[in-house]
Design brief:
Distance between the termini: 21 Å
Number of helices: 21
Shape: elongated
Strand content: under 5%
Number of strands: 0
Low-confidence stretches: 1-13
Radius of gyration: 21 Å
CATH topology of the largest domain: Annexin V, domain 1
CATH architecture of the largest domain: Orthogonal Bundle
Mean pLDDT: 93
Number of domains: 4
Structural class: mainly alpha
Largest sheet: none
Length: about 325
Amino acid sequence: MDPEYFKSYEMSWGTLGTVRPFPNFHAERDAMEIKTAVEKKDVVTLVRILTNRNNEQRQMIAQTYQNIAGKDLETSLKKALSGDVETLLLALLMTPLQYKAHRLQQAMSGLGTDEQTLLEILCTRSGKQLKEISATFKELYKKDLDKELKAETSGDFAKLLLALLNKESVAAVVQRDIEALSASLNGKKADPEPWINILTSRDTDHLNRVLMGLELQNGEEVLKTVEKKFSGDLELGLKVLVQCIENPDLFLAKRIAAEKTPVLQGIMVSHSEEDLLSIRAAYLKHTGTSLYTALQKQFKGDHLQALLALCRSED
């Protein structure tokens, strides 16, 4: 273990991210170490370095490696690694925007659509972030994200996804929004339009007051109301959106607890420099077990060490 690894633990305090800039960072030294590790297929060294540098430092390492080795670091890692640890380290080499765009593309590729991952990213990112992700998606895949979402989904669910992708905060009156949502529930079939329009175009504080007001008026949780009045993918989408408005950390913690490796890795990589500490706290409260301990029960070997390095420490 790198002796300076433990110093960088201290860097996580005062921030919601678990991965921080590595102190005494030298891109050339890291690149040379990685070059030797790739040749020897020394996975331990590759994991130690790449999980213990922040993304900006990893980008510098990749560029320096290219200059020193005359080849692309991603290509070299593919020759030296395999399985889940390969997937994880390659994810760490992407910029944050590239990785989010990659996850969206993966959610729409192959047979079937991973609606949960589409919703996770669209519901937990701001309008500004989503514009940047859309631009990166276009750059990487030469396709428009909105057109891809339209092609992969249909009906009111497609309308919801596109509204989320293009969300902008609009000033409104809380009571009027409560009344509009309540009125949409009258009759045999609920009208989804106010739900899509309101829940994708207000700031979080406003929406929390709207949802609380709706609960008081109806005498039940909004999630139960959505389950009763909507169905199919739209029901799923509105439930995820409501959860992300009320407590995004808890939503992500539940998703980590319930889903398999790709989802867990996706969330941990995406949030490691942003708010993984908050997600860890929500995970502990939700499951009664710390994420650090849960990882040790579920994974092993080099893959486990990589995940533990991202998680950072016990709660």
